[in-house]
Pyridoxine/pyridoxamine 5'-phosphate oxidase
Amino acid sequence: MNDLSNYRKSYEKSELLESNIPEDPINLFNRWFHEVEEFGGDSEVNAMTVATIGLDGFPKSRVVLLKKFTEEGFIFYTNYNSEKGKAITANPNVCLSFFWHTMERQVIIKGIAKRTSEITSDSYFESRPDGSKLGAIVSNQSEVVPSRDYLEQNLKQLEKDFDSIVIPRPKHWGGFLVTPLEVEFWQGRPNRLHDRIRYSSQQDYSWKIDRLSP
């Protein structure tokens, strides 16, 4: 048995106070994101966990990369026919989370996911390296395959097929925009009295701000 009860750390790097936060969560997320990017040292600041409710009724989480965020919400890209894509299509209620351990910060976003426009998906797909484009085509994401060699051989064939040819975005691949309903910011503090600030979306498009007990 591995007893982890003595794994402890004192969180002392920052604070999160109502007197120093904006009225909406996107502005605070933007501030935190760039502070972590500049000072935190995290190699992939945009790595986030996406949690969905699967077709089997079980929740499932996986790490993907955030590719854009605006006042509308948070965008990532995936195969719509993947386990993740099918789960979101059946139940668009999702949760995104970021954990930036170097800055002792966490952000949890509860929201509704919908597909981005084809123009948005096309634009991002065109910006990708050719290898990533072909990878999106060759991979029937989440499906069982006989071997690694099977994937690599299919990729080599695609490289030949699309040699000197524009690689089109497959229709089953594109973006999801997650519109936030609640955004919680967690800042580690000493003695486990962590700061937790929650923004809740209101019908008039404003945000209700609450402090939560740690």
